[in-house]
Design a protein that fits this description.
Elements lengths: L18 E5 L3 E6 L5 E7 L14 H12 L3 E5 L10 H15 L4 E11 L7 H5 L5 E7 L13 E6 L4 H11 L5 E6 L6 H4 L3 H17 L2
Parallel strand pairs: 3-4, 3-5, 5-6, 6-7, 7-8
Antiparallel strand pairs: 1-2, 2-4
Amino acid sequence: MPPHPAEAEFVIATDAAGFDVRRRSAYDLGIAASDAILPLVVLVHGPVRGGGPRPREWPVYQGYGSLLTRAGLAAAVADLDFTSVEALSKPTAQLDEIVDAARSEPGVDGEKVVIWGFSGGARLVGRWIEEPPCWLRGISLTYPVAAPVSRVQVPIVLTRVGLERPAIEATVERLLALTTHAEVINVPNGHHGFDTLDHNDESRRAVTSAVAAVTRLLS
């Protein structure tokens, strides 16, 4: 069995030097210590197995947050009561509140936002894919369990892995069939959770490519 995500190292070494982390009740916000007004990325985790540290404390989300902050963005790591892929009403409502609160943070440009869903967290963003609000510049998805949608009305950055489980890959295929505005980052030898499981150059390139693509959406 792979290690719990709380104990799994991120594929890229990062640190928190040079930016602040604001601890809120439902999210952590990483933001540069400056007077700039920065676009926002909200990182959305999927269901949590077992006890232990919350996702905001996992190296994988702290790692993505650090990379985004170093790219000149603000990064909010959500902390949701998300226990299964099917039980969506509570985390969906919580995510709405988190996005609203993070958009209103000092130093954040609330009119330039990307939501980034990982694994089952991607199930929470289907409504924004179909009907994006004016402040949403794009959706990023990494090894997603993609939400069933009827149309795609927003640019998408999608990181897909070659060793994905067939049922999950089918959700990705259905989503991509609905759009020509997706930037797809392929990780041919990657597993679901490659950014902690597969410590190699392919994984590192995929992570940095996704961060660069999200940055372009917000530029």
